[in-house]
Amino acid sequence: MIFNQTLFLGHLVKLLGVINVKPVHNYSNIFKIRFKTGAALQQLLAFASLIGLIIFFSLASENFLQFSNIMGILLSTAVIGVLALGATFVIITAGIDLSVGTGMTLCSVMAGVFITFWGLATPLGVLGGIFTGTLMGCLIGLMVAKMKIPPFIATLAMMMIASGLSLVISGTSPIYFTDRPVFSTIALGTLIPGVPNAVLIFFGAAVVAGLLLHKSVIGRYTYALGSNEEAAKLSGVHVDFWKIVVYTIAGTFTGLAGILMASRLNSAQPALGMGYELEAIAAVVIGGTSLSGGKGTIIGTVIGALIMSVLRNGLRILSVPQEWQTVVIGLVIIFAVYIDILRRRRAVV
Amino acid sequence: MSEPLVLMEGIEKRFPGVYALKHVRFELMPGEVHALVGENGAGKSTLMKVLTGVYQKDGGTIFFKGKEVEIPHTRAAQDMGISMIHQELNLMPDLTVAQNIFIGREPRKRLPLFVDEDEMNAKTEQLFEWMNLQVDPRMKVGQLTVAKQQMVEIAKALSFQSEVLIMDEPTAALSEAETNDLFRIIDQLRENGVGMIYISHRMDELKRITDRATIMRDGEYIDTVRTAEVSRDRLIAMMVGRKILHSPKPDVQTKRNKRLLEVRHLHRYPLLQDISFHVDQGEILGFAGLMGAGRTEVARAVFGADPIDSGDIYIHGKKVDIKQPFDAVQKGIGYLSEDRKRYGLMLDKDVKMNIASAHLRHFQQWLGWMDDKHIAAVAEEMISSLNIKTPHADQHVRNLSGGNQQKVVIGKWLVRNCDILIFDEPTRGIDVGTKTEIYHLLHQLAEEGKAIIVISSELPEILRLSHRIMVMCEGRITAELNGPEATQEEIMQYATQRMS
Q1: Of A320, A314, A308, nearest in space to A276 by CA
Q2: pLDDT tens digits for B374-431?
Q3: Residue B102 and residue B123: Cα distance in Å, rounded?
Q4: CB-based contact A18 B107, cutoff 8 Å
């Protein structure tokens, strides 16, 4: 797998020795094209919408731009945001993961089992909870890559299994972490005064996800799979292996989200979680990631998740009933995806 | 010279029902550019797929640098240093040029999880400089023209330091200048001892760049010749062979009445240039040409499936405006795609449903209920008149043979009352016996007053069916021939005539 650099260069030098090298100068027009098209515009648009929303709500209500309200928005973004980070990887491979909502619940229940039932040390329990997610993701990856079960079906099944197992394991009642006060500080403690740790963890996770997706080989193969799986296979990429890796990463983020959720509620709520997967997917899509694969960024997903919670928060401050908030978010999704389609149509012509 | 780089002897390959390669021999010396020529379907691609591990041979031996080898998968061929530049591009449009070239073997940073993007781009730039290729390695491949993408594909193959490089119609999408660049690179590689297999239909190119040529016909090895010593006509004669036509030529006396379809000065840049032709009632018009000559594109343009830049279409002498397939069908044009399983049929529905599907409104009753009895009656009628071999009208189309599936598609368009029927490769994948039946059916339809256009890559088929033949080459019509008098050699001459 490792590319033999010396050999390649040797070959090249041998070839270079025989012919005249003509340097290439006219890159200027290429840069112009690159600047205008691509995901950059979509992100710009998403970011502009976010700023627009913030300005709108600050003008509409003086309560909106309070520091505590901003922190509230960020805190409420954390769980969905972390889920969305993992979902971004899966969606860029042109897959989908419906199991992250209830999977997250199973992870918090398992953390409850490890900590409250078995009395393991808190860090161990937390790692165990996250690892539950990793394992689930790995299983989904195996189903998708090796058993060739379509991602929609494999993760739909996993969503049901996780939902059921959470109830079975917890005996259908919440598991409380009250005898471990440190547990709730994972999300709600303030390493930086005024800023909940959950917010830090979300941004930290985003940085890690960004490095993985945009700088590492894992990310490279994630895009390759979604862009043209057949071509990747013919180029000697181990398509099955990297698919499993992608779902495993998504599962790990699910585990982290589960811990954040449990810590915020100071309990594992086994009946929770259904529907979170769709919110996560919505955040990814608003952030400009294409469900047909190959395109998307972490920063886009972060912005997408923020747009959703700014909308919810702002509308609530304006006393718009919750039912209507959901309607508005639905409309925003249509708008965001339609803009993307328009952009792509123009790019083709 | 030294021992051959690649020697393939007695290669056999069978597919269900077809003998694709019969005892084929092929030899490639180091530093040689070896052309592989033959008509469409002669077995060139199959032979190359055996060499690159896509297919497994059923017999024969392959020697690589004198040693007998097995090539069980594409990876094995790659590891040996055999790369192929495919005609259909194998790139990932959302990745950059450099990322595509280095996919699967990215240079890493000190922390090996991370890709050294700078080094990758620098190496790519070096490679491009050498190739005299002006492409930014950081650009997304999807934003490049097809020609540039082709050059990227070539760059990728070169970066593997291949000892054997297979190029399938590499110049199909390239301009004259780009072709010259490619030839310069080929000469360079030749000096470095790389052996190249060059598949092309362009006779003048073969003369220019190749040392020897191996000719194949109908899956058989014909001969290997020095390209410099053989004339273009001789090469074509060997490709075409002296095939005996068992079938009678089409009846010249078929009465032609009305001009049903006329196309004038159709342009679709860059695929079609100034296409004009007409078909009369009772006539079969053949479209001959090599792969990629633009025959299917003509059909799709007339049918409204692709947008056209300019040109007029007349049906029954009246100018019509066809913007989408719906308009074409309304005007009485039926298009039978070459890929009938994908575009022509619902495989998991029964014969009845398929026959009715092009004209459901015809079978509608009050409030939109379907008249199943009417559908069944019409289906039975079609089954008997087209001689569709199916146990009953409720049989799923998937279970029918290729020929009978094709008849179902024909029946579908007959129900729609189409006067103009365009057949794209009407007998692809159909066994010989049923082929004859389809031919009879087409003649019968013509006699009944339909106007028929047949697109086919099989010259005997075109000659057997057509009253008139349009020959295409690179998006233009290069000849209009009288069907009963045309010969395969004549068609090949015009089909390989490169316009400048």
Answers
A1: A308
A2: 899 999 988 988 888 888 888 888 888 778 888 899 888 888 888 899 999 888 777 6
A3: 10
A4: no
Nearest to A5 among B91, B107, B129 (CB): B107
Which tens digit of pLDDT belongs to each residue from B320-338?
999 898 899 889 999 988 8
Residue of A nearest to B88 (CA): A231
| Cα A75 to chain centroid, rounded | 16
Q: Which of B102, B108, B136 sits opposite A30 (nearest CB)?
A: B136
Q: Distance between CA A251 and CA A253 in Å, rounded?
A: 5
CA distance B172 to B183: 13
Mean pLDDT, range A305-309, rounded to an integer: 94
Residues facing residue B96 across a β-bridge: B140
Alpha helices in B56-194 (DSSP H): 74-80, 97-101, 117-131, 146-159, 176-191
Instruction: Write out chain A residues lying below 8 Å of B108, CB-based.
Output: 2, 217
Alpha-carbon dihedral of residues B35, B39, B40, B45, nearest 10 degrees?
-30
Q: Which residues contact B241 (CB under 8 A, 6 or more apart)?
A: B217, B218, B222
Question: Cα–Cα distance between B389 and A31 in angstroms, integer?
Answer: 61
What pLDDT digit, counting tens, does each position of A151-177 carry?
Answer: 999 999 999 999 999 999 999 999 999
Q: Which residues of chain A neighbour B132 with C-beta distances below 8 Å? A: 22
B91 CB neighbours in chain A (<8 A) are: 228, 231
Question: Where on the phi/psi map is residue B396: left (φ > 0), alpha (ψ -120 to 50), or beta?
Answer: beta
B101, closest residue in chain A (CA to CA): A235
Inspect the interface and report whether the beta carbons of A215 and B114 lie closer than 8 Å: yes
CB pairs under 8 A between A and B: 113
> Among A13-27, A175-189, B250-264, B321-335, where is mean pLDDT lowest?
A13-27
Q: At what angle do helices A239-265 and A67-92 cross, to 10 degrees?
A: 160
Mutate which: A37, A234, A242, A349, vs B, most B CBs within 10 A: A234
Tokens of B257: 């009445």
B94: nearest CB among A31, A211, A295: A295
Tokens at A210, concatenated = 């960004």
- Indicate which of B114, B117, B183 best probes the interface with A, i.e. most A CBs within 10 Å of its own CB: B114
DSSP letter at B358 equals G
Across B61-67, average pLDDT: 93
For the CA atoms of B93, B95, B99, B103, the dihedral, rounded to the nearest 10 degrees, stands at -70
Reading the block at residue B327, the tokens are 């308009």
How far is B282 from B262, CA to CA, in rounded Å? 14
Instruction: Write out the DSSP string of B45-96.
Output: HHHHHHHTTSS--SEEEEEETTEEE---SHHHHHHHTEEEE-SS----TTSB
* pLDDT tens sequence across B109-146: 888 889 999 999 999 999 888 877 888 999 999 888 77
pLDDT at residue A42 in the model: 64
| Contact call for residues B275 and B311 (beta carbons, < 8 A) | yes
Q: How far is A63 from chain B (nearest CA, A)?
A: 43
Of residues B401 and A28, the one with the higher pLDDT is B401
Instruction: Give me the pLDDT at residue A3, please.
Output: 42
Contact between chains at A223 and B74 (C-beta distance less than 8 A): no
Q: What is the pLDDT of residues A234-285, one digit of tens each?
A: 777 889 999 999 999 999 999 999 999 999 999 999 999 999 999 999 999 9
Find, among B245, B318, B257, B263, the residue nearest to B447 by Cα: B257
Question: Nearest by CB to A217, which of B106, B127, B184?
Answer: B106
Number of C-beta neighbours around residue B258 at 10 A: 12
User: What ipTM score was computed for the predicted complex, to two decimals?
Assistant: 0.75
Of B91, B107, B139, the CB nearest to A34: B139
Helix residue ranges per DSSP H, B306-364: 325-330, 340-343, 351-356
